[in-house]
Amino acid sequence: MGKNLEISFLLDFYGEMLTEKQRDMVDYYYNDDLSLSEIAENEGITRQGVRDSIKRAEAQMLEMEERLGLARRFRRISADIQQIYSLAETIRRYSDFPGAPREIGDSAARIMVLADMLEKNE
After folding, report:
1. In whole angstroms, what is the distance from residue 50 CA to residue 56 CA?
2. Could you tell me if 13 and 74 are in contact, meaning their C-beta atoms sit under 8 angstroms apart?
3. Which partner from 11, 54, 55, 110 sits 20 to 30 angstroms from 46, CA to CA?
C-alpha cells in the first residue's frame, strides 16, 4: 500500500486521537488532495506550519498503529473473512453434486451468511 493510502487508512482508525486541526490538515492533504500552500491559505498559517502539523500527525498515527495494531488487525480479519467466504462457496458448489448430503450445502450457505454478517460489522 502506498504512503498516501496508508496514512489515509490510519486516519480512519486514529484520526479522533489527533487534534482537530491536525486531523483536518491530514484529511485535506491526503483525502482532498490539497497542496500544502492551499491548506496554509485556507487555515491562515504558513506552508511550513501545515507541513509540520501533518508530519507530527503522521508520526503519531504510525506510533499508535505500532502500539495498538488496529489497522493491521482489521486488514487481517478482512482477508480471513474473504477466505472463509471463498471456501464456503467452494463447499457449496461441491454440495450440488449428485449424492452429496443436503446438510453440506445448507452448512456452507450458513457459513457464507455468517461471513457476510462479520464483514458488515467489522
Report:
1. 10
2. yes
3. 11
- Encode the chain (122 residues) as per-residue pLDDT tens digits: 688 899 999 999 999 999 999 999 999 999 999 999 999 999 999 999 999 999 999 999 999 999 999 999 999 999 999 999 999 999 988 888 888 888 998 999 999 999 888 888 75
Q: Residue holding cell 452448512?
A: 107
C-alpha cell read off for 104:
453440506
d(CA 35, CA 32): 9
Q: C-alpha cell of 8?
A: 489515509
C-alpha–C-alpha distance, residues 13 and 50, integer Å? 21
With beta carbons less than 8 A apart as the criterion, state whether 74 and 119 touch. no
Residue located via cell numbers 446438510? 103
DSSP class of residue 82 equals H
